[in-house]
């Protein structure tokens, strides 16, 4: 992200903002907010500390079960952020391609075992 922002910045024209936007076009009140800017709770796992601790323990359990490749195939940049997304309810563990592959292997073996039992 830092490199992307740096590349965008280098390709932008070297002008001052007041040269790009005419201040006469802006109203006096367009630069001011009527309401205070509230903090963003993006990093909060839960409203209560006890709930956040429970979710953190769940995250650690999920991280231990993940392969730890940080491949990004699930859509999250790291396995840790993937575990956080699972705890928040945005993903499930089978969204990890490695866990899904292992689950499919187990299911395929069960199907083979069931088909052998039915024939006998």
The quaternary structure here is single chain
Amount of beta strand: under 5%
The biggest beta sheet reads: none
Helix/strand-derived category reads mainly alpha
Average pLDDT, to the nearest integer?
86
Shape verdict? elongated
By DSSP (H or I, 4+ residues per run), the number of helices equals 5
Distance between the termini: 60 Å
Please trace the helix and strand order, writing H or E for each element.
HHHHH
CA radius of gyration = 25 Å
Flag low-confidence runs. Answer: none
Number of strands: 0
Tell me roughly what share of residues is in helical segments: 40-55%
Topology:
Blueprint: H1 2-11, H2 17-20, H3 49-65, H4 79-88, H5 97-119
Helix pairs in contact: 3-4
Protein model, in words:
- Helix content is 53%, strand content 0%.
- It is built from five helices and no strands.
- α3 packs across α4.
- It starts with a helix and ends with a helix.
- The mean pLDDT is 86.
Name the descriptors:
53% helix; 120 residues; 0% strand; mainly alpha
How would you summarize this macromolecular structure in one to three sentences?
With 120 residues, the chain is mainly alpha-helical.
């Amino acid at each position: 992200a830092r490199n992307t922002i740096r590349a965008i910045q280098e390709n932008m024209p070297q002008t001052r903002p007041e040269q790009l936007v005419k201040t006469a076009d802006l109203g006096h009140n367009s630069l001011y907010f009527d309401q205070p800017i509230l903090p963003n709770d993006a990093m909060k796992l839960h409203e209560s500390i006890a709930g956040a601790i429970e979710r953190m323990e769940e995250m650690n359990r999920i991280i231990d079960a993940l392969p730890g490749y940080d491949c990004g195939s699930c859509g999250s940049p790291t396995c840790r952020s993937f575990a956080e997304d699972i705890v928040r309810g945005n993903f499930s563990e089978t969204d990890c391609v490695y866990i899904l592959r292992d689950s499919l292997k187990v299911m395929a073996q069960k199907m083979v075992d069931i088909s052998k039992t039915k024939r006998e």
